[in-house]
Amino acid sequence: MTSIAVVNGQKRDSSGSTGAAQVDTTTATAPTAPQSEGANGNNGAAAAATNGQNGGGANGAQQRERRCEIYRYTSDKPLYAAAWSYRTDSKFRLAVGTCVEMAQGNKVSIVQLKEETQELAEIASFNHDFPANAVGFIPDHENNYPDLLATTGDCLRIWKVNGSNVEQDVALNNATQFSAPLTNFDWNETDLRLMGTSSIDTTCTIYDIEVETAIAAVKPTSFTVKTQLIAHDKPVHDIGFSKVNNGRDHFATVGADGSARMFDLRRLEHSTIVYEDPQKTPLMRLAWNKQEPYYLATFAQDSNEVVIIDIRMPCNALTRLKNHNGAVNGIAWAPHSPHHICTAADDAQALIWDIQHIPRPVEDPILAYSAAGEVNQVHWGFVHSNWICICFNKSLEILRV
């Protein structure tokens, strides 16, 4: 293909000189989706110039300086959970986990972009009991703490990463005997000692972990259970800390009872229902806006739409994003903008939306990307805020937007 990106509904030709497609805030018409083709970005997520590809001189030098707009890592097994690293000294580094439905045979890989080869390559990996349904690096923006990675499946595990060496630091399990499977977790960005997990047993658990600083990282991470609460009447599917007020004490959950609920760590005897699906369909995931702390996104099981909620107006959908033709699987807000959100679905589409004009209806996305399979994950990079990652089939792709 010669056109593989759309900005504001306009195709970007690969011979253009403007380079990467930029997220714009102007009103857009419906874009034509680009396609996922070729490994290592030969057909990128944004316009990649082809002039001077084999030539010398100024054009050749200019071409060599251009960065590809898409990179792909391919595994020998289906991939599911993925996350960006927050460390500024480890650029373009991600974690991704396999999804094989058995107790053994799964692993989590740490991959990084190799500048010399322009490829996403595995730099470390470790075996994981059962598929990891969520992975996440410690949200340490200042590189003050050890390089930690958390995973959930049968329990919450924290791993220490040291180059190509990864060791399990601690397994956090609140149960004395039987442990119900976990569905997700979140790491509090304001207070890195706090982590929350959601479980199919209707509970959420908040852990207070003690993390040594990078200067004195000699003892294993220790933890205590800060609180455990029954959050829903049915399995809890997701949990996320909010930046409302001090950014430490509030978190939300969504569950199989079709509700989204807000909790305050200081007053856990009460919760507030901020949204209920009209049909009581299970809500699967939630995502907090990184810049506008009152905006929450969620979606229901087998639904092709994403609901945006303003928690100051509980139980009312601020807007609904309805352009997908398959069940939504993932949502991710831009870390640098209050107006942009990416959604991913079974229709193999990753769509970026501009919601700055709500409550006016948002009819169409401003950017679209077509993958080579059903997209089951999407995450927006914090360090690299103009890149997203998606997972489909046996592939992890990072796309410049």
From TrEMBL:
UniProt key word Ubl conjugation: no
Pfam families the UniProt entry points to: WD40
Protein name per UniProt: Uncharacterized protein
WD repeats: 321-356
Keywords: Repeat, WD repeat
tRNA processing recorded as keyword: no
Taxonomic classification: Eukaryota, Metazoa, Ecdysozoa, Nematoda, Chromadorea
Region (Disordered): 1-63
Classification via InterPro entries: DCAF7-like (IPR045159), WD40/YVTN_repeat-like_dom_sf (IPR015943), WD40_repeat_CS (IPR019775), WD40_repeat_dom_sf (IPR036322), WD40_rpt (IPR001680)
Annotated SMART domains: WD40
Ranges of compositional bias, category Low complexity: 18-52
